[in-house]
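User: For this week's homework, look closely at the record that follows, marking any run of repeated tokens, and judge whether sequence predicts the tokens.
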Amino acid sequence: MAPCRFSMSIIINFIIITLFPFSVTAQESSNRNVTLGSSIVANSNSTWTSPSGEFAFGFREVSPGAFLLAIWFDQLTNKTIVWSANRDEPVPVGSTVRLSSDGTLELFDQRNRWLWANQATSGTVAYAAMLDTGNLVLASNTSAILWQSFDFPTDTLLPTQVLNKEGALYSSISPTNFSKGRFKFTLQADGDLVLISRSLQSEEHLSTYWSSDTIESGFQLIFNNFGSINLVRQNGTLLRPLFESGPLVGQFYHRLKLDHDGVLRHYVHPKSANSSLAWSVRDFEPSNICRAVMERHTGGGACGFNSYCSIQAEGRPSCDCPLGYYPRGGGLSGCTPEFVQHRCDHQQGQDAQSFGLMQMFNIDWPFVDYTKLRNVEEDTCRQSCLSDCFCAIAIYSDRGCFKKSLPFSNGRFDSGFAGKALIKFRINKTLTSNPDTTASGRESSTTTLTTTLSVLLGCAGLLFLLSSFFFVFYLKRTKSMMVKRSHVRPAGVSMISSFSFKEVQEAANGFNEELGRGACSIVYRGTLKNDGKVVAVKKLHKIFEHADDEFKAEVSSISRTNHKNLVQLLGYCDEGQNRILVYEFMTNGSLATFLFQKSPRPSWYTRVQIAFAIARGICYLHEDCSVPIIHCDIKPQNVLLDETFAPKIADFGLAKLLKADQTRTITGIRGTKGYVAPEWFRNMPITVKVDVYSFGIMLLELMCCRRSYEPDVEDEGEAVLADWAYDCYQQGALDLLVVGDEEARSDMKTLEIYVKTAIWCIQEDSTLRPHMNIVMHMLQGSMQVPTPPDPTAFVR
């Protein structure tokens, strides 16, 4: 039977991917057809609507007195625009769009000057129609489509729409300026699907910051009617999903948009009577636009020149200016210094007394250094920048000094960056003369300036001394704090200690205080001799067939991490038959002990905080590690709690590292019964979605304060937590999950969000599970959680 099911699956996928998107005729009721000679005038509130009324075509006012000829979602409060004919040149009141007698769609301004027309068609146009798909078409008497807006997208794709080779989406300049912006999404002639940054002035391509890596393979990008966005080969078979299936299109509006910030987002919106609900983001690429847009030779990076970028919810960048700089035009336009930079052509050096350096931590401007000083102290770096008229910023990191002149680019906030930015500012900038001031102007102001200076000099000197004192105090205090922080910062691979067996044995006091044990290891309490730090010593006690592989996997995977919700590996021992790992000690033990204790019940607020923190840690493993990591054994026993009950994911012995070009891998079954995703048992390639499944089960356990399987409950229907939770959700009885938990019952809104998110996570069809970055947005409330289907409904 297996070959038969496989063949049927191929046939079904072929139909879904290739047939559903295409429209070969304009099959609409005749009373919605627009006849030749029809027209619409800007500001007349007249539109051509689709039969269902979901889409409308006409003029939309985008700024006072300025209109776009556009298509939009007409039943939503914000009338979201999905296409426009004149995005770069809005037209004034009184402008007209007309379907002429020869079947040409033409746009004229209020003076009847021709501005735009659809491209020539082969055939005789009989009518126009706004379709329920959001597609505006010109059709013949036989309903054959001769021209369609779907062939000329702006920044958005809709379900049933296809992006062919050399087709492209262009971002807007800003949320309110619909002109072509800095970013482009295109399926290149070579078959590679890419996101590109571009120059607004020359339209030159600056850098490719995301790619599907499908050169010579990609043929079409198809947004099918099931909410899935797929890249296919020329024979119609699936090459790779761009974004996996979302909520059914029949219940949700969908759109794929290249936003003004360069992020490609898949939005969904419920089709409900409450049209004031906001669009929510289902998925997006790239995961971190601040890191993705790295314009090494030209361009200012994600936020423009002299700025720095930090990532927010839904992949949205926040663009900020360093100290002493102000925004040029907001958004992605970069920053300008508040003071006049010294002109190097007037002197060889620079008066260091006229300038100071402000420091900012965790901010870096990589690349484009005009000078690099190696193995120097920070003071040397400071003096070098202060006395150098070219130097605007110096990055000091790992005893390296990287000097940059204006403009500097690719700025980004990075919590893992241990260096600092030293930003030059002019101390007496308020008295700096404009370099363009004429000699006569300077002479006429000499007396006034001298008088003013003589009056202010005493006060200014005192103020400067006081400011200097507090500034030096601030620098010393900040430096001291950074030194303290550096002692607890998780170390990189090269910084992890290698212990001898004797050292570990002494630290663990002969391995006599056991903290816990697993199938292949025992964990002991220990104390490091050099600093008295309490540690957890994990000793592999079974020399089984793959012991070395598991040991190396744990060291390799966790040594690549640096996150507050991952346990810190301090060192290891690999001597003879001894395989030992030394971890930071977690005061409050495992989440399993905390969660499943008989009494007292952990507080609702603490459980909610723990759930979100665990999601953040898993998201880091999947999205932000230099090499993505699949943990493979997410469960309460492998989450440890520190003294504040902050969770840290542990036990990476089963973890799987993904290569840079991998999204899935083949491996033998791993994990713990009850938390293992179904694909493990079906001999299918595994992806990061196996961790999503395990997290979903654990999330239900956190919400309900019980194990995922309890055979001794009175009602058999409650034995399997996942099944019971879905039944309660479907019946509108979520309060049954938290009987006796008054804290949880008083916060039913959060409970519903978390349970719905968990149900999405435990879908047996892995393609329906959200990625962990989306899970985080759901739990945060930054995106709406769609109605989840029955987790077993899609099982084949």
